[in-house]
Amino acid sequence: MFGERIALDLEVNGKPLSGVAEPRTLLSDFLRHNLGFTGVHVGCEHGVCGACTVLLDDQPVRSCLMFAVQARHHSITTIEGLAKGGEMHPVQDAFRRHHGLQCGFCTPGMVLTAVDLIQREPDPSERSVREGMSGNLCRCTGYEGIVQAVLAAAKDLKRQSQSNRTEETQ
Amino acid sequence: MQIDRPFPQIEGRLEDARLLFGRGRYIDDLPVGPSTLHAAFTRSPYGHATIAGINKDAALAVDGVVAVYTAADLGAVLDPFPSIVRGAPEYRGIATGKVRYVGEPVAVVLARDRYAAEDGVSALDIAYEALPAVVDVDAAAAETAPLLHDDFGTNVVWRNRYRYGDPETAFREADRIVGIDLKFPKYNSTPLETYGVIAEYLPETDGYVIHGNFQGPFSLMPVLARALRVPDSRIRMVVPQDIGGSFGIKAMIYPYMGLIAACARLAERPVKWIEDRAEHLLGSASGTDRNSHIEAAVSRDGLVRAIRMNIRENVGAYLRAPEPSCVMRSLTTFSGPYRIESGEIEAACVLTNTLPTGLNRGYGGQQYMFSLERLMDAIARETGIDRIEVRRRNFLKAAEFPYRTTTGSYYDSGDYHGCLERALDYLRNEGWERMREELRASGRLVGIGVATCVHSAASNIGYVTLALSPEERAKRGYNAKSGTNDFAHIALDASGRLRVQIGTAGAGQGHATAVAQIVAREFGLGVRDIDVIDRIDTETTPWTITTGTYASRFSVVVGGAVQRAAARLADHLRIIASSLLDAPPDQIDIEEGMIRVRNSNSSLSLRQLAGAAQWNRGDLPDDVVQLHVSESYGAPNLRSPDSENRVNAAATYGFMADFAMVEIDPVTFVPRVLKYIAVHDVGTAINPQLIRGQIAGGIVHGLGGALYEHLDYDESGQMMSASFMDYLCPTASEAPQMSIDHFDAKSPFTVLGVKGCGENSAMSAPAAIASAVDDALSEFNGSIAELPVTPPAIWRQVAGAS
Ligand code: FES
Ligand code: FES
Fold this sequence. Notes:
Chain B: It comes from Chelatococcus sambhunathii. The structure holds two protein chains of two kinds. Chain A has helices at residues 27-34, 90-97, 107-120, 126-132, 144-169; strands spanning 6-12, 15-21, 53-56, 59-62, 75-77.
């Protein structure tokens, strides 16, 4: 059972990839060590810290709580896939501008969680940002910069989508 | 030449893009070769037990397992780690004969991959015979307590008494003596990234290459080298580009570097180990927990004339370097920001069946600030003088600096009254008191707390030697210790670009950005025009015994070295330019990448100058001037302790004025910090944003220690908080709204006028929050003497009153 290897196909950051994993291989280990997505960070391996968060079919999941084989035929976004054409995603850029990171270890999970949060709630209050981000631990920033960054990113994204809509109607 | 311009600022940091794109390079991201073995530790499930037998057969039979090593095997290549206190019980980092805390390494399994290594750990057969355990510091100090180290004969591993000024007279003449008993808890600041080590033994040179997320102090490198039986320079220490938070805890990785290096030598293959979270909580390090009694001799008008303190410090199962230094910060700045001219401190370090201690952001600071500030509140209560007024009356005055304290600490500068006033402005402008009254009127328990503390920074390595008696320090053959210094190297490449190398590896503080700002200011360039190498490879990075990212020393010491190196390189460039432009060096200005002769049109670019100096060296008259410079900087006024235990413990002394507003749920008694104000004197600010970030993080670390984080053991020595489910780190929901400001009482002594600020409210917040809880419980005469302040603890205060 342990030695058995299972081939799996999945999509990571828009690219089809395949690999082989034991049934017990965690998705976080598979992404990091088999596929090289070292932007997926592991802080606790028991589902509390959120550092390992990736988007699975656009939903945030804790990759340390999933087996690699469960990602078979699914599509995953890691932090490496968020920026388009070398340009930071607005959430990344807001983290940069508002000092939303220090050591950067929680950052991939924070950013991906924020992307999802803003998608679900485009106009969040500070309270709902704090609640929405409370499943992710940061030990460096005291969350000050992170909360400011998420609020700012939500505004930026809203402005962007409004101007896109105006362009469309013109 | 003295350049007088503000530090250039940028939006964000030089480090940010790499980290935001997921391209950080942390220890577990480094590529390893196929011959690398992966380690997993078997750890003690008992707080105290004899190891009756270890049978490796089943573990070795596991598919993929290559070797299993115990202390008996590793002892062939690894000696005990030397301790600061001579004669302290042996510390090997792995259990020999018996286990003394839950989580203590007992064996290491090496395997093809981590999964197989963990299988080996589960299969390993170890027989234990349980012994009675002791986890409380006072219980362990009792004569009847079970002994941790039988040969040592007592659990009190170190004790000493210190006396400054004339405490006897002060207490005799006091109008009032105010005393309290306190308990400070055991916690660690748990960086989000755990420890990691990759080690290899090189038989050709009898040396080691060790990769690890080690933050320093590099004074621990000789400790490691002694244990591995090699000269210091035979350990090539490589610190990866990125460290996922360190907070002092990552100084204490050194025993694991020793163990993994020894494994690599025995296995004749590289070995990699990444700690998991449970291991980190059980087996890395923590701050000390402390039971103490503190009392003050107080005059009628609330002035503190002397302090007596009795400290019982729980250092866990072993006293390992750099302990007992935890006591020394408490000792050397015991008077805090107050004019207290006499003191008597009795301190003991006690061994218990708990995780051994070490650095934890603030290292000894939070413990003594908690006692001193609790004491000031108690004095206010007993004398009827307002809490803030009592502090004001006892503060040193701005005109008194530089001020030599009774312990020999040389406070560089300060304006405590002014800084506190600035914090009070925030409090008034934000309407804190009104808010408290309104919330109270609606039936809620709300309080405001205060802490005013001194932030010593850039520690003098000599303060560690206060652990020895003056007689021991006077003996022939004793090598005195003092100072803190560091290196910087700067070079202009042939294309005219500046590159700086420093000897500290940061863990998110933004060192590269700050260094670039210092250099950019000197040359009148933009921050992004400077490249900074801020990772360590001891084969190529200059380093000293005091190198490292600890004791809030970066901006003072490394910043000083960088500034000196930059200024000297600029001088060299002026000399080179003077021969190219035919003008005296002191008539040459460097600005915006240009080198200009003052009041003339004659100029050349940095690029032209670098090109000429690199390609046309022969035509330059002066062969001494260079395009690269190495400079060191030793912080001033730091000597070794004198025969009366007086020492200047640190290079700079900042000040912190903190206020916390706490609300307690009247039904569940769950406390919550609603708001926090921190106005800190950091001297000259190189980068205000980085400072804010440090303080915000410090506030939440201090808040964690005050309310949530606790490495808690039951009586048998079982740890009750070995996962993030039970060890509660504050989240964004628990973090308060913060008002953070800095106050500039420039240091007259440091090169840049800066003061260290990295530990900040991680030290003062526990005191400020305890003060706020008292205020919230004022109708019940609440008085917090123990942290963390949990709902049951609050309930006891409320129930005790009614
Ligand atoms: S590593 Fe997955 S939640 Fe912490
Ligand atoms: S930035 Fe270090 S853990 Fe969040």
